[in-house]
Specification:
Helices cover 67% and strands 3% of the residues. It is mainly alpha-helical and 198 residues long. The protein folds into 2 domains: 102 residues, Tetratricopeptide repeat domain (Serine Threonine Protein Phosphatase 5, Tetratricopeptide repeat); 78 residues, Orthogonal Bundle (YggX-like). A two-stranded antiparallel sheet has the order 1-2. The chain is flat and about 50 Å long.
Length: 198
C-alpha cells in the first residue's frame, strides 16, 4: 500500500507539471521499488526527454528494460548512459551501468581514470567522488555532522556548488518541507546520489 501511495503521489505531481523531471524520475523509481518495471519505462524515458544528461535515469531505465526482457534496448540505454555519466562525473551510476553491461555480456566503453598520488594527498587534494577528478579539498566543511565530513573529504568544490543548484530544484520540484524528517531524508538521498556518496 505504501508503494501505491508513492506511485499515486508522484503520478499526480507529473500530471500537474509535465516538465517535472524529478517527479517523473521519482515515479519511475517508485514503480521499480513496487516491482512494476514495465510501468517505470515510460516515466524514465520522459525524464531523459526532459534532461538527456540525467545519468541515474539511464541506469534505472536500463534495469527496467532488462527486467522486462528488452536486452537490446537495455544495452543501448546503458551504453549511452555510461558515456554520459562518465562525462558528467557521475561515478556511481556509471559503475552501476558498467556492472549491468558486464552481466549481460555487453562491452563496457573504455574510459581512462585519474589516480590520486601520495603527493596529491599531501598537498590537500582529493579524488572527487562525483567527477572522478583530482581537485583541491574544499576549504571547509559544507555543513556539520558525519555527512558534512564525508562530503568535505570526498567532493570537490565545483561539484558541491553544482549540487546546491540541483538541491534547490529537488526542494522545489518535489515540494519538500525540510522541517519534516521524511523530506530531509528524500533531500539527503538525492544529494548522496548526485555526489556519488554511498
Amino acid at each position: 500500500m505504501i508503494d501505491q501511495d508513492r506511485i499515486n503521489r508522484f503520478k499526480a505531481m507529473t500530471e500537474a507539471d509535465p516538465a517535472n523531471e524529478l517527479g517523473f524520475f521519482s515515479l519511475g523509481r517508485a514503480y521499480i521499488d513496487a516491482g512494476q518495471p514495465k510501468e517505470a519505462i515510460p516515466a524514465l524515458q520522459r525524464v531523459l526527454a526532459l534532461n538527456p544528461g540525467f545519468s541515474k535515469a539511464y541506469s534505472l531505465l536500463g534495469m527496467a528494460q532488462r527486467t522486462t526482457g528488452d536486452q537490446t534496448g537495455a544495452i543501448e540505454t546503458l551504453t549511452r548512459g555510461y558515456k554520459i555519466a562518465n562525462d558528467r562525473g557521475d561515478l556511481m551510476p556509471r559503475n552501476d551501468m558498467a556492472n549491468m553491461l558486464k552481466e549481460m555480456g555487453a562491452p563496457v566503453p573504455e574510459i581512462k581514470a585519474e589516480a590520486l598520488t601520495p603527493e596529491d594527498s599531501a598537498s590537500g587534494k582529493i579524488k572527487c567522488s562525483r567527477c572522478g577528478r583530482i581537485a583541491p579539498k574544499m576549504p571547509e566543511r559544507p555543513f556539520s555532522g558525519e555527512l558534512g565530513d564525508q562530503i568535505h573529504n570526498t567532493v570537490c568544490g565545483p561539484c558541491f556548488r553544482e549540487w546546491i543548484g540541483q538541491g534547490t530544484k529537488v526542494i522545489n520540484e518535489l515540494r519538500l518541507n525540510l522541517t519534516e524528517k521524511s523530506a530531509q531524508d528524500v533531500y539527503d538521498q538525492h544529494m548522496k546520489e548526485f555526489l556519488n556518496i554511498p
